[in-house]
Amino acid sequence: MSTNKVIHALYNDDDVLMDAVKTVKESNHHIEEVFTPFPVHGLDKLLGLPHTRLAICAFLYGLCGLAFATWMTNYMMIEDWPQDIGGKPNFAWIYNMPAFVPIMFELTVFFAAHLMVITFYMRSRLWPFKEAENPDPRTTDDIFLMEVSVDDNEEELTALLNTTNAVEIKVIEKH
């Protein structure tokens, strides 16, 4: 029978948290989430989180920006309103391309940066006016929280977490 219960184990040191995560993972318990006041080096590997694919998105967004800049400079400066600069008209984009390099660079960076922010917020489900999901406000200051799911093994899990030097252990009913 699956329940909505989780155990919150709170720690006051990141090294103690890392040791606790190792202990819980070795005991084959599922860690739902870990909340920390700052990034903890190596925690993502220890939790078995997959590598992010956001860099691939950034590259693709940059390519879109480069393609848009190429189209835009060709349309504006070659097709729509060709310029006769210094008596040397040139109506081929490829010959004028060195003058367009700054524009192409800036639009590549612009598209990559702005679309990455949008992708990050959508992937993280961070919408405007979204209710915070932080289970304990102390995790934004100086406390580390490990959330472990309970599957009819509450006593065993509590005993295990007591051996990991947890400062506080609470059983919570998630909604």
Q: Give the overall shape.
A: rod-shaped
The helix/strand class is alpha+beta
> Radius of gyration, rounded?
26 Å
Which stretches are poorly predicted, pLDDT < 50 over at least 5 residues?
A: none
Largest sheet: 4 strands, antiparallel
Strand content: 15-25%
Describe the structure.
The chain is α+β, with helices and mostly antiparallel strands and 175 residues long. It has two domains: 65 residues, Alpha-Beta Plaits (2-Layer Sandwich); 70 residues. The protein is 49% helix and 16% strand. Strands 2-5-1-6 form a four-stranded antiparallel β-sheet, with helices on one face. β3 and β4 form a beta hairpin. α3 packs antiparallel against α4. The two termini are 17 Å apart. 15% of the residues are buried. The model has no long low-confidence stretch (mean pLDDT 90).
List the helices and strands and how they pair.
Layout: E1 5-11, H1 14-26, E2 31-35, H2 43-47, H3 54-80, E3 84-85, E4 88-89, H4 93-123, E5 144-149, H5 154-162, E6 168-173
Helix pairs in contact: 3-4
Give a short synopsis of this structure.
The protein is 49% helix and 16% strand. With 175 residues, it is α+β, with helices and mostly antiparallel strands. α3 (54-80) packs antiparallel against α4.
